[in-house]
Amino acid sequence: MNNERPSWQRRAVVLPVVTALVLAFQLAPIVFVVIFSFNEGRSIGSFTTWSVRWYESLFANESLLESLWLSTWVAFVVAVIATFVGTALALALSRLRRAEAAVPGGLLGLVFVTPEIALGVSLLLLFSTAGLTLSPVTIIVGHVTFCIAYVAFVVRARLETLRPDVEEAARDLGATLFGVVRLVILPQIAPAAIVAFALAFLLSFDDFVVSFFASGVDISPLPVYIYGMLRLGVTPEINAIGTIMIAAALLLGVIGFVVALRRGIVKQMTGAAQGD
After folding, report:
1. Thinking of the domain 57-275, which architecture would CATH place it in?
2. What's the burial of 251, exposed, middle or buried (CB within 10 Å: 0-12/13-18/19+)?
3. Which of 5, 19, 213, 221 lies 20 to 30 angstroms, CA to CA, from 275?
């Protein structure tokens, strides 16, 4: 009697194991950082006892708090600008025929495949040629250049699911073009815009490469500041900073996902991507 399991049953056992191993490999460093951020001792290799000592030290570091504040308000400004411009761009592309939107859509997609180091160097050369002093303004400009593409992708995926007959009905009832946009289109794409805003905020806040090339000699964004700390030696404060950044990213990610899930954007975006 052959007791060998069918191939599909073997795959059913192997796939969960492989998935668990991959997730463990990805999450192990994050768990390590979070646990050792509460370590009393200075060692980052042996845990002694639980303590919030390094969080207290972190919030007493004025230079680090200035970098944190800089990264926060830069990310907020970038998210606002990118959401506005990216939404307008998505609206424009959605009104073009597929052949007409191919070229601008392809150029927009270059952002996803362009190495970030190339983008950072290009921005540095551009700012130097234009005679601009590196400052928070140049950081904002650099971040907006790639965040717009992400916003446009999210919002355009939502626009692909809208019913054109609703707009036509609004026009038949006397609504102007501005009225259709304000009363019909924007309320329907608002959840997608919120998700895009959160995504742009996270991308800007967490960016290192473009921030490194676009920041000046004054206050550095938080990722660049952390890089400077690492060059001088790893301290447990790094774990505390990392834990705070992980918590902030998870919070914004959960908020965006809940909004998208409640409005059905996740399903709609998946369907639009499959349709393409």
Report:
1. Orthogonal Bundle (1.10)
2. exposed
3. 19
